[in-house]
Amino acid sequence: MNAALIWIILPMLGGIAVLFFVRGRSSAWIGGSLAALLSVIALIIPIDRALLLGSISFKISPSIQVLGRSFILNTADGPLVGLIYGVASIWFFGSERSGKAHRFVSLGLMVISLLTASIAVEPFLFAALLLEMAAMLVVPLLVPLDQKPGRGVIRFLIFQTMAMPFILFSGWMLAGVEVSPGDIGLTTQAGTMLGLGFAFLFAIFPLYSWIPLLSEETNPYATGFLLWALPTFTVIFGLGFLDRYGWLRTSGQLAAAIQIAGVLMTASAGIFASTQNHIGRMLGYGAIAETGLFLIAMGLRSAQALDTTFLLLLPRGVEFAVWSLGLNLLVQSRPSLRFGDVKGIARQYPLACTAIIFAHLSVTGLPTLAGFPPRLALLHILSSQSVMLSFWVFLGMLGLLTGAIRTLAVFVMAEEDTPWNWSESPIESGMLVLGVLALFMLGMLPQVLQPLVVRLPLIFEHLIQ
Amino acid sequence: MVEAVISWLVVILIWFAAIFLLSGRDWRVQLAVMAFQYLAAFWLITRHLPFAMASAKLVAGWMVVASLGMTRISLIQVDEQASFRAQDRFFPLTLAGVVAVVTAGASPRIEAVIPGIGLPVIAGSLLLVGTGLMQLGITSNILRIILGLLSLLMGFEIIYSAVESSILVAGLLAVTNLALGLVGSYLLMAEATPSSELEEDLLT
Lengths: 465, 204
Fold this sequence. Notes:
The complex is a heterodimer. Chain A is mainly alpha-helical. In chain A, 71% of the residues lie in helices and 3% in strands. In chain A, strand 3 and strand 4 form a beta hairpin. In chain A, helix 1 runs antiparallel to helix 4 and helix 3 packs antiparallel against helix 4. In chain A, 58% of the residues are buried. In chain B, helix 2 runs antiparallel to helix 5. The longest helix of chain B has 26 residues. Classes of the chains: A mainly alpha, B mainly alpha.
């Protein structure tokens, strides 16, 4: 058996099989089960170690050769792959009630497969190409054939495509910098190229205009999946650069630039979120703020930078799955997600509204919710380095909180005599309740993540030193 | 010597193609220009990559153009030439001029930073990247946006082929081009399919 075969080719084939041979809601259960199974295998079976099962001895070999290059998933990658497929399974099971499970699961599996390949490919630089392919595969997920493509999806496609050349070329230049580290001109050029590439990939201010547009134009569940998956793998890719190139790792200027970009994203997204009148756009700004936090964590000049980044990574999938699932239920009964259209909807969809509000509050970092422990850790380190940056992050969080309070006010703004209904189905209710419970569990018992948080950073052998 | 002359000739033809791509209103002309640009790029790529690898890029590019053309021909839309005005050509021509000037200024500098690539290869690459960027900046038409992105990628591929000769990268870039073409075809179809909401609006 081969790791690439199990976690790259199998889900890709699974996605294709679901696309052609499975119809209806069963695709959600098939895709979710496959992803969950892959997650369990990644978490319990070590790669590249011989195991004895009864009388049968087997080993998952770590690498596969394709056109002269390797795709390697080794022992250290196991927890990350397990986490990704675990969160992906939540998304796939959740799509059961989205009404678009077939399309979502088939394309989703293929996207996750490509993104996993981006972790495995050697040289890791080529991951930019796989990220680009994954981005293109997301487009049919965002725009069904009966819906006109809006500005958001076009901008998304343009920005993701523009990122790839910058990153590939900067990778080639970085190799030159390694050979002659004293060449300031080359270093500056390589750094600029790399910065531009990641600015497009991370959707750094002001290049994030496509996110709120997309959140408004497209299905919130598909958008939520995109806003979870792509930034997560981009973070891994970005950390890979820092791990690979020593001068990037030790550059104080680069760390400061990354942090300022992150603070700009978090603060501006929070401020914009506080003035929105569309709860879909609110999700978009939440995602931008969270990506900003990733950048701040990556730029921390501290031994805990890597741990904090992974601590932020873990709850993100749950937060956005719960938020998107709630929004998806609301959008099925209302013409849009504007405040005017969802006014008083809490009396019709109490659980969905509760889930949206708790997920939103978790992104703002409210205590007892999943987002609180990583934000506390981040602000603790950041405030010891710069009080001013901490203030702006706090302001961003305050903006998001304002958005959550406004959303809550709109949800409960019903006429006096409006009766309470329970419009969610039992399965939907179960999923939402489990999601909210997971948010509380991750917030109140963050130590459950400890085994993962300890093992995840091991994939970056230089950064952990 | 002959090869250098041909390369410069190709660069000049790329610039003329850029003018057509930016100012053309007929999608058939634009796709034909795109197909020609792939041929021109093929020549410049063969300066650094083996003939077989360059051919793969050419075939992939032509397949993209074919898929976009087949999709577009099956769609019934308002004739874009109907709304054409003579003064509409002036701005794209100016942009093509700007691209040419920037290319002329930047190519020798890039040649100095990355020696050995060859001035015509750099100039051809920059012309295509510039044309793609300008195209992206002036239009909201999906076909033109996809052509802009393809032009941008083609320009990048020319210069990248000089520094990276990996077969995997060449293959992945070809797949990326094909995927972009398919996404373009998909978006063109989605744009042309009347949504139920729009149909209701029309009925009421």
